[in-house]
């Protein structure tokens, strides 16, 4: 049975602060600075840097499924992301324990979290920090889809802890320039594709994103930025999430979950169409070079269709009279659009072959 935070004697205050933005926007830089700052304030701060917690090969999925075996790669990438949330949930089930003693079914993630904690926690505080009442988790990742951030919000809500998020706003050109100076830079294609997919926090649309802050990262971060972040997090500490208070918010959360399901189901259906198309192409003895180009075009087309679906799933054509999302209709619409694109692409490939 899950342990409620308010049922634990001498409970600790806990907050999860999520950082999102494009690659090289400055997330890790500000997270490390904030970690040092809050630790000196007496908070025990855990910096969960997804780039360090998830193996590099799993990030191949970010290349938007242009690799071979895209489904297996995506599954691996999602598995590691879920492992991080599972590790957090394991601790939140019993917040009276020390995070470093929290067992986990995901040993690799657990060990990496321990290593990161030792790396970022000042030596003078490592021995005594177990008694600190405030625990802050800083989650550093691109979190380009709001559904990715929503998973963290749901976890915070389930266990009644603080939640806030920070969006690092940075021009694409500057991110690309910074990326070039990295020891292991990403391809510019990945960054440019993520620009198209990025869904910044939208408090006006999503009530669960109210506790958000947007910071410009064009220049170096200042003490004023750190103070703004500290104020945001302090507010989250003082106002932990609680069970749903009214039907309006619950309906919004349910619709968001439903929307995620729609995109997932459409993705699975489109994947099957891609597999069928590739099988047909092989049976027609299309060259390996053309097969590779075909797979790339089909996956790009699928990504565009799913991106449009994600943006428009709440639009009136898919809303039932009871104000719920018509899942079957929304998925069917996306599949029809993709099938049309697939036929055009296959026809073009056939013409080139002839």
How are the secondary structure elements laid out?
Elements lengths: L12 E9 L5 H14 L3 E6 H4 L16 H23 L14 H14 L2 H4 L7 E7 L5 H14 L2 E8 L2 H9 L7 H10 L14 E5 L6 H16 L8 H37 L4 H25 L14 H27 L1
Parallel strand pairs: 1-3, 1-4, 2-3, 4-5
Helix pairs in contact: 7-8, 10-11, 10-12, 11-12
How would you describe this protein?
Helices cover 56% and strands 10% of the residues. The chain is of the alpha/beta class and 354 residues long. It contains 12 helices and 5 strands. The chain has a 5-stranded parallel beta sheet with strand order 2-3-1-4-5, with helices on both faces. The protein has helices spanning 27-40, 50-53, 70-92, 107-120, 123-126, 146-159, 172-180, 188-197, 223-238, 247-283, 288-312, 327-353; strands at 13-21, 44-49, 134-140, 162-169, 212-216. α7 (172-180) runs antiparallel to α8 and α11 (288-312) packs antiparallel against α12.
